[in-house]
Design brief:
The protein has 186 residues and is mostly helical. The protein has 5 helices and 2 strands. The longest helix has 35 residues.
């Protein structure tokens, strides 16, 4: 149990750091470089490449920008919200683990939220660009934007891992219910 508590503290700090970095990148693009979704910042001999969106969408972001549409606010804000939601539930989950609460309905609920959010994000990685293009082509007078679907190993991995997390959450939920009903020790 001590290992779980120690690892959970570390994981909670990593999630907090990742969320802070994600928020900083988003705020950088929102206030400094909102006209693009990709930038390179140089610091002497070193440089940092920053992206406000998943790299799979960079070509689609370029299509939007070529049509005169700010891709950051369409794609970057969606990407940011999804990541922050996942970080919040991960933080809450590891906070429970840190307290020694391993099998509870709340843990299962957090895992379900994480899995569902990741599954929705995996589907969005495939379909959001095409739905965005169809919406823009139908309701606005921008130059016609081609409809693209993005399906590759990243999207398939996202769908598989989110499904695994959902199944684990359902198994844990069943175990919690059995524990409550029968007084089993898991």
């Amino acid at each position: 149990m001590d290992k779980i508590i120690k690892i959970s503290k570390l994981a909670k700090l990593l999630v907090l750091a990742a969320g802070t970095i994600q928020a900083s990148i988003f705020l950088y693009f929102a206030f400094v470089n909102a006209s693009s979704t990709l930038t390179k910042q140089s610091f002497g001999d070193n440089s940092v490449n920053l992206s406000a969106i998943h790299e799979k969408w960079l070509s689609y972001a370029q299509l939007l920008e070529n049509a005169g549409i700010n891709s950051f606010w369409i794609l970057g804000s969606f990407d940011f919200v999804v990541q922050i939601v996942i970080f919040i539930f991960l933080f809450k989950l590891f906070k429970l683990y840190e307290k020694g609460i391993i099998f509870s309905t709340q843990n299962c609920r957090y895992l379900q939220f994480i899995g569902t959010t990741m599954l929705a994000y995996g589907l969005a990685m495939i379909f959001l660009p095409s739905l965005t293009s169809a919406f823009i082509n139908t309701f606005f007078s921008y130059p016609k934007i081609e409809i693209n679907y993005y399906l590759g190993s990243n999207e398939i991995s996202q769908l598989i891992w989110s499904s695994v997390i959902l199944v684990i959450s359902w198994v844990m939920k069943e175990a919690c219910l059995m524990k409550e009903e029968q007084g089993l020790v898991i």
